[in-house]
Amino acid sequence: MNVVIKLKFYPSKTQEELLKTITLDYLNIKKQYLHFHYLRLKQGKPLLPTKSQPRAYEEYKLEKSNFYNKKLRQDYPQYASRFLQAVEREVIQDLKSYQAKLKDYQKGRGKHKPSYPWPREKSLRFVVKNNGVKIDREKRLLTLTLSKDLKLELKFKGKFYWVGEVGKAEVRREADGHWYAYITIRNPKKPKKEKKQVKAPRKHLIAGIDLGLNNLMAIVLYDKATGELVGSILVKGRVLKAVMFKYQKLIAKIQQGLSANNQKTSRRLRKAYWRLVKTLESLSRMLVVKAFKILKALGVKELVVGDVKNIPRDRIRKVNFMLQYWSYYKLKKFIEFKSEQFGFKLKWVSEAFTSLTDPLTGEVVKSSGGECSLVTGKHLVFGRVFRGLFKSPSLGKVLNADLVSAFNVLRKVYNITPSLTQVVRVLSGGSSVVVSFQKSLGGVGVRVGGSAQALKPSLV
After folding, report:
1. Nearest in space to 208 (alpha carbons), one of 289, 294, 304
2. Rg value, the chain, Cα
3. 13, 169, 299, 422 — which has fewest CB within 10 A?
């Protein structure tokens, strides 16, 4: 397993000017490599010939060596060969993905013909191979060696915990105006810390997790030894929606001013998009870490999580509008990373029809009348009677739909036969532990529900 670590560093004025020249040179070298392959493509030659085509492969090797020695080495003598090799490797990756997309289009799988992968003009980034990257953890120095005469010693912010084989480094200037380095660590290990002993941890606990929108995570706890449902946890995601709507108004205001001046983009618009994505990412990670700390304190050893693949599909327009900046893929990768760090066993399960399945009978209940008013009682149906609520036909009571979904995700792996009182107590949501973002506490706060006294000592 590889880990990518993000380091923020503060270069001096001379170092920043040097970084800008390196990024521009990297961009120009990449353009020349792509132009070389583009000319070969226009001449009808194979784009990336393999050894199975010996004549075309030898011709390609000869042309590439002439281009490398006569063109690149003369134009950019200040860089070592490893810097040029890093550019070439990235170009080959781009061309391979372009080839795969083109084959899919020719077979009728894609709607649009893929365009040639020319680089973006405004991308300030470059890649350094692993043999040119050194990290001094004590002095907090990142040394990038581009040639014998060209070395960059950059001071980074924060502590570097991971120990392992250092891979490539990607240096990038992002929309906030700061410079970052993304470094891959192969076979990472963290130094061991003294573990705090938790008072009377529960054992054999398994958590079923459903990922959603209003409730970022709905968690149902199941005791494998006794075969009972212990309790439930709701991680609220409303703060993420509030942040999203706030930034969407700001983005709309900026775009209105740009359209009046016949402009498509600006630095302010890019910065607003960047802040929106990063704020959503940091807040969701804070909530996930707090929930995992609670699960660790309770003695949970295994997580069964519903996979949210294709979640925007078959949704109403407003929900799709809210989900366009919501990176569930990053959230999924972060859950995998943190579960490994906390020592949880992780299983991904399809969450199809989990919110429509009755928790007692296990049958799928589809509401025929759509959404209805629970106050007036008109067009009363069972199933998803209202957004966030599920009415069980076997119980005749309204339950929390996200907790029902988390329970059904758990039941896809384990055969659970809960009693009627357990289902009403745990899945109704009234006695759930609520994890939410509270400004008064200066971060993520925990609010314990009324009858969840069994979980309360473990949270303190």
Report:
1. 304
2. 27
3. 13
